[in-house]
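Hi again,

Forgot to attach this to my earlier email, sorry! This is the prediction with coenzyme A bound. I've pasted everything inline since the attachment limit keeps bouncing my files.
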Amino acid sequence: MGGLETSCESRRGLEAKIRQLERQEICDVWSIDRAEVIDNVYYHEGGELVLKPEHCDVQGWPPGEPERYGPILLDCFDRAGTFHGAFEGETLIGASVLESCFIGRESDQLQLKFLHVSRRHRQAGLGCTLFGKAVARARELGARRLYISSTPSENTVRFYLRRGCRVTDGVDATLFELEPKDIHLEFDIPV
Ligand SMILES: CC(C)(COP(=O)(O)OP(=O)(O)OC[C@H]1O[C@@H](n2cnc3c(N)ncnc32)[C@H](O)[C@@H]1OP(=O)(O)O)[C@@H](O)C(=O)NCCC(=O)NCCS
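Structure tokens for the complex follow:
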């Protein structure tokens, strides 16, 4: 783990190093700036995605999130989940996490468990690169699809739809119970 490092020069000229994270670096994901101004939110109603105006000035991680979700990420790491980090110098500015446990009717899906890029580094290609790393690793592990429980904000859902994700018709009951307001998506991994 932590070996292979790649450089990623974005169209905005930001040069970030992408590499796998060590276990002791997982707590650093909470230093990623989660701030976002949300103006519209998607709802999944009657089989359709419906966009509704809903303003929310997200200032950072929800209170208690590191304490609640940190141990979940460590457990994921311990069962061979794949963690990629994007670094500007020594600073973690984005991360993706791929689960290792197969889910889905045909047990052929892996969950993209986390994908965040710091506010001022968005729209520079890092999200696409980190998403691509998770897809490549899922393919290596033999998965046919990614499962994504997406934050319902317009920008996030659109990001996934533009990558080729679609609303899943095989909602995972456990993941749905955890995040019923999320938009549950799947992505066919190209062979
Ligand atoms: C969703 C998220 C991960 C996307 O990350 P990102 O780094 O902004 O994504 P990218 O920059 O790779 O891609 C975003 C768009 O910018 C475009 N882009 C990339 N480089 C660009 C550049 N230099 N100039 C302009 N646009 C650019 C991409 O092509 C993409 O456009 P498209 O979707 O129309 O194809 C990020 O916005 C985020 O962290 N959001 C808040 C947290 C969140 O909701 N996370 C998901 C939880 S499920």
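The pocket of coenzyme A is lined by residues 10-12, 36, 115-117, 122-128, 150-151, 153, 155-156, 159, 162 (CB under 6 Å). Strands lie at 5-9, 15-20, 36-45, 48-58, 82-88, 91-98, 109-117, 145-150, 166-167, 183-188.

That should be everything now.

G.
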